[in-house]
Write a structure and sequence with these properties.
Number of helices: 4
Strand content: 25-35%
Distance between the termini: 50 Å
Helix content: 40-55%
Structural class: alpha+beta
Amino acid sequence: MKNINYLISFLLFCLILGASQTVSAQEKVDTLKKKDNLIHREGFEHSNIAVGMTAFRQEVASLYRIPRKAYTSKIQGRLEATFVIDKEGKMTNIELTKDLGFGTGDELVRVLTQLAKKHTWKPATKNGEPVHVQYSIPLQISY
């Protein structure tokens, strides 16, 4: 009986935690809509960066430094981050979506933040008007 009470308490805790995260995500979407910053995912002409996407990805890979803890632990796998190219062509809202731990995600965010200051993009357009567009960038760590 005691184990069942612990199990029920744990499940309620998980349910409350999940609900609070859902509210946070919904608040973020509502905030974007209120600011007329709706992020488009289809039906638009893509953003462009002057150096080209291949060169941009190579620059991400060349600036990325595997954190010492990750290297000594031989951490391998795929990281992923998202970012938004806004109506002015600036990279904003850099967020880590897949992390391997050991500082690997923080390093990817550092690199993208550095590149956001360096590069300006040609904004995406929809019906001839600039729009916000979200992109995802993966980074594979292997030895």
